[in-house]
Amino acid sequence: KEKIEFTTEQQALMRVITDAYNKHQIPQDVTKKLLQDQYSTEENFLLLTEMATSQVQVLVEFTKNIPGFLSLDREDQIALLKGSAVEAMFLRSAQALNKKMPIGHTEVLEERIHKSGISEEFIKPMFNFYKSIGELHMVLEEQALLTTITILTPDRPYVKDQPAVERLQENVLDLLRKMCVLHHPQEPQYFARLLGRLTELRTLSHYHAEMLASWKVNNHKFTPLLCEIWDVQ
Ligand SMILES: CC(C)NC(=O)n1c(-c2ccccc2)cc2c1CN(S(=O)(=O)c1cccs1)CC2
What is the C-alpha to C-alpha distance for residues 31 and 15, in angstroms, rounded to an integer? Predict the structure, then answer.
């Protein structure tokens, strides 16, 4: 049985990332709205727009707390945020959907996502992803670290100093590997399974661009923040 030792730096890194992840949650009033009575496609679309916009704001604040991120080249910081925004949104969605909710709330949530104007062809891969994340039963620290690893992906478009991003990401990968052994001692492949989800996430984010183009809600409008981070309109 491998004895897991965390260095002082790793303990500090874990605490900073977990605290930041805890602090930057989507405001309750936004998630509460999802359970209101309105069920029209337009209403559901508007709610998702509001949630996704709120999540981008949360993502920016969370990212600023990642040790070393603000020391990166300013333009690279933007490139990392833009490059990971959609993946972070799907990851956060999976975590939101797999959270323990009062009876029936998950069904309402799923219903509203189904009835928000998303083309059928994207619903399946999206819900498959949510399910595959749910099956992992990640602890909060693992969720926070996985989101951080997604943000610190060196090969995003337009990143100039990739080695600098790699160095930051490697520290978080090493920490996540140890956390996986600690929390899932019976599953030696657990860490590899987690990283496999990042591949699934990239595929899903490729769908996203088409999803936006195919929105069936007539004259669908996104917020300026979503348009900027997704490079649409
Ligand atoms: C938690 C937040 C970040 N999740 C969220 O906003 N969701 C959720 C979702 C999933 C599980 C629980 C609660 C919500 C499903 C979908 C979205 C957003 N997108 S979108 O960004 O493409 C979008 C398209 C049009 C306007 S916003 C569409 C799919």
Answer: 26
Amino acid at 213: A
177-229 pLDDT, tens digit per residue, is 999 999 999 999 999 999 999 999 999 999 898 888 777 666 788 999 999 99
How far, CA to CA in Å, does 6 sit from each of 9, 47, 53, 157, 227? 8, 41, 36, 33, 41
Q: In the prediction, which pLDDT does 123 show?
A: 92
Which atom of ligand 1 lies closest to the CA of 113?
Answer: 15
CA 217/CA 47 separation, integer angstroms: 13
Query: Which residue's alpha carbon is at the smallest distance from atom 28 of ligand 1?
Result: 48
Ligand 1, atom 6, residue with closest C-alpha: 52
Q: Ligand 1 mean position to 175 CA, how many Å? A: 29
Task: Give the Cα separation of 38 and 18 in Å (integer).
Answer: 35
ipTM, 2 dp:
0.97
pTM of this prediction? 0.94
For ligand 1, the distance from its centroid to the CA atom of residue 158, given in whole angstroms, is: 26
Q: Which residues contact 108 (CB under 8 A, 6 or more apart)?
A: 34, 35
pLDDT digits (tens, 9 = 90+) for 61-88: 999 999 999 999 999 999 999 999 999 9
